[in-house]
Automatic annotation (TrEMBL):
GO biological process: maturation of LSU-rRNA from tricistronic rRNA transcript (SSU-rRNA, 5.8S rRNA, LSU-rRNA); ribosomal large subunit assembly
Top-rank lineage group of the source organism: Eukaryota
High-level lineage: Eukaryota, Fungi, Dikarya, Basidiomycota, Ustilaginomycotina
Source species: Pseudomicrostroma glucosiphilum
PANTHER family tied to this protein: BRIX DOMAIN CONTAINING PROTEIN, RIBOSOME PRODUCTION FACTOR 2 HOMOLOG
Bias-annotated ranges (Basic and acidic residues): 310-327
Matching Pfam families: Brix (PF04427)
Name of the protein in its database record: Ribosome production factor 2 homolog
Region annotation (Disordered) ranges: 1-23, 301-327, 353-442
GO cellular component: nucleolus
Record keywords: Nucleus
Similarity comment: Belongs to the RPF2 family.
Gene Ontology molecular function: any one: rRNA binding
InterPro entries: Brix, Rpf2
Amino acid sequence: MLAIKKPRNARSKRAMDKRQPQLNEGVKSALIVNASHSSALVSKAIHQLSTLKKPHAIPFTKKKSNDVNPFVDSGSIEFWCAKNDTPLMLVGDSRKKRKDNLTWIRLFDGRVLDMLEMGIDSMKGVEEFKPPTLPDIGSRPIFQFSGPQFSADAASLYPAHAHLKSLLLDFYRGEEVLENGIPTGGSVALQNGLQFVISVTAGPIDEQTGGAGSSTGQGTSLADLYAAGAASSSTNGIGSSSSPSIDTSASGAKIYFRTYSLVVPPKTPARAIPSSFELHECGPTFDFTLRRRQAADATLLSHSLKRGKTQAEKNRQGKSDTYKKNIETDEMGDMVGRIHVGKQDLTNLQTRKMKGLKAGKEEDEDEDDSDEELEALSEDDDDEEDAYMGLGNDSDEDEEEEDEDEELEMEQLAAGSADEDDEPAESAPKGAANGKKRGRKA
């Protein structure tokens, strides 16, 4: 395994945090390797299978530098996957004992979890179908597994087929739709989202090949369908890739891999749910033969199946029978609760608690003065209202008498001024006038 270095800056720290286990994992990338000992058929098959995995496929096609032996040495596999941050790997090789071979590999925590080997009997590429059709890059397929060997009840009888089913679903799972931060388990839009179907059919199994059951007693239940190395894990601790347990009980079983494009009738409205579909074989198609497989160690498998608690589960704070009521979790992961409070007694509520809010002596005197002014203004307003309503008749009579007296005085003054205008003006002495002028100069 690679040594974990301490990040030097924020960018490298974010990259390392992105590689750490997440609560909701994204799409698993796959490393597609064409080994040094290969053939033209294997190279073509590797290219076709990587096309279905795009854009989450990392191809390595240089044969000279790709020396990989999956069931012999897993050190190179673990190194390559750790270097490229890929938990899945597909290796194609062709040797004297096993020609045209494909090995599906899955890793967990930087170690090989399980492997399955299949031989290629025949294949047809996408270009051999007319017209050639390919789904959009990144679209999710729907899988159809035909045959009693793939049923959940038959997992104990056919562990190799259950192993293949799990590998294919994990390999081409794609990006899952999240609802409130939780994966929905494979929701795909019926129109424009679902574009192709992968059909995997199990051929008839010959009883002489031992495919109907395991001679070594492996795969007794669905939970132990990968646990072929459970017997050796008790002596070696956690399963190690250096001492694997190889199972060949299903060797020789036929698997038919077909790909169909899904065509919607042309007259279907845009937002309507189509009532029928048409399937057209578009390729690639393969005829496989099961060979060897290495099942996952029981202890390592239990660690890989663990799932961290979501924030909503942490906020519940109790078991299923003792969950706290009125507690919810919003989309941001924050806990939101409702508190039911009884009726509060406000009679003894203290409103003034700060000294600055208390009234001083000066404020009390100002309040008294303002009260007196308000009382005086209110009395004046009352007098005006009484006068307006006709309550003061005596005052009106007095005002009329005063008006008559003023008119008489004005008439007398006017008569006196007229008499003065008729008399000649007396000439003033010259000395007095000169005295006035001299006085002004002085």
